[in-house]
Design goal:
- This protein is mostly helical and about 110 residues long.
- The protein has two domains: about 50 residues, Arc Repressor Mutant, subunit A; about 55 residues, Homeodomain-like (Arc Repressor Mutant, subunit A, Orthogonal Bundle).
- The protein is about 65% helix and about 0% strand.
- The protein has seven helices and no strands.
- Helix 2 packs across helix 3.
- It is elongated and about 45 Å long.
- The N and C termini lie far apart (about 50 Å).
């Protein structure tokens, strides 16, 4: 039987703050579940019901949002931005950025500067 409910507000706030503070590193589902003392499955289901997206997709979107701000700084290269927001490879960053925003990081930067 599927869970019906959401993460309590305090736990949701704690995990969202944790994600925000750790975007530059690899964040695992088990790490997020342990932040709120829950099983992996229970956490993933309640997180999705609370936010409307899976934990992975939420982290990905947060990384892209932070990258958008960093790309406005011409002193930072696209590679620097990708590393800063937690992507191990610039190709993965470019692919994820294009999927979420609709343009490459380079094109985004060109259009914004």
């Amino acid at each position: 039987m599927p869970y019906r409910g959401v993460l309590p507000a305090a736990r949701l706030k704690r995990v969202l703050e944790y994600i925000d503070a750790n975007l530059g590193k690899n964040i695992s589902l088990s790490e997020l579940a342990s932040v709120v003392n829950m099983s992996l499955y229970h956490f993933a289901v309640l997180f999705r019901q609370s936010t409307g997206v899976s934990p992975h997709r939420y982290v990905l979107h947060q990384r892209v949002e932070r990258a958008k701000g960093l790309l406005r700084d011409p002193k930072l290269s696209v590679l620097d931005v990708s590393i800063n927001v937690g992507f191990g490879h610039s190709n993965n960053f470019a692919r994820a950025f294009r999927r979420v925003i609709g343009v490459s990081p380079t094109q985004f930067r060109r259009d914004r500067l």
